[in-house]
Amino acid sequence: MALSNHNAIDFNLFEPKAPTGEDKIRLSDLDYYSRKHMPPCMKTLYTALKNQHHLKHYGRLQLGLFLKGVGLTLDESLRFWKSEFTRKSDIDADKFEKQYAYNIRHSYGQEGKRNDYKPWNCAKTINLTQPGPGEYHGCPFKTFNDDTLVQ
């Protein structure tokens, strides 16, 4: 069942589309949408974040751009990540601001080159580096074994 021949698939069909108006997801809706509507890659990242209150760089970037793409504002995104990360005993609000907030603002085009970064499509996600220990980024159809996919 694993996606071994992913090069034969046209992943341009899976370009993320930005929601408008009523289609935008609010921060208060994330838990519901994570259970019902997120693609497997995002559900994996969201679940890992909720369980461990932290994601490594590529996981933060992949999930963060997805959340931006479904309509979370910069302010909502900062509140979301801060509320999760500060649940860990070794990350307080000051450490979050110093080590993580800049990258979130950067992904929204508010820091650095001020690029408006888009959510990653399937092709980009599939071609990410293989996740190491404690990492959850990438495409589950590429990185998970059949038993894990069935769960």
From TrEMBL:
All copies of domain DNA primase large subunit C-terminal, residue ranges: 34-149
Alphabetized InterPro entries for the sequence: DNA_primase_C (IPR058560), DNA_primase_lsu_euk/arc (IPR007238)
Listed GO biological process terms: DNA replication initiation; DNA replication, synthesis of primer
Keywords: 4Fe-4S, DNA replication, Iron, Iron-sulfur, Metal-binding, Primosome
CC annotations in GO: alpha DNA polymerase:primase complex
Molecular function via GO: 4 iron, 4 sulfur cluster binding; metal ion binding
Obligatory cofactor(s): [4Fe-4S] cluster
PANTHER family recorded: DNA PRIMASE LARGE SUBUNIT
Protein name according to UniProt: DNA primase large subunit C-terminal domain-containing protein
Organism: Favella ehrenbergii
